[in-house]
Amino acid sequence: MAMSFVSTxxxxxxxxxxxxxxxxxxxxxASGQIPLRPDGTLVEGDIVEQAHQVFANIKAVLAEAxxxxxxxxxATVFIKDMNxxxxxxxxxxxxxxxxxxxxxxxxxxxxxxxxKVEIEIIAHLEV
Length: 127
Known about the structure:
The protein has about 130 residues and is of the alpha+beta class.
């Protein structure tokens, strides 16, 4: 099965030796997105502000691959402080609504650029 790489300038460029997303057949595996704007500047502020930027990045990568949030089947959420879970969950719900992909949420000691949240997704795209 052929593999292709997804890249868009509407989300921040990868800051290491990886791609924004990899597509294999109808599956899209998106790298974790942190609250960087497409120009590479960091969104400062609380988990709510940072989560909105993360979702903007995820939506941009999905759109480049021909999908949307409705194609997401699994999300993995990494947060710096589990005390922020409630606020993060509210933002998450705004983006997914009644579409409820499987999800894991893990508190981690540190994230790139010392951000508060990183989210990676797996999506099933129409073939």
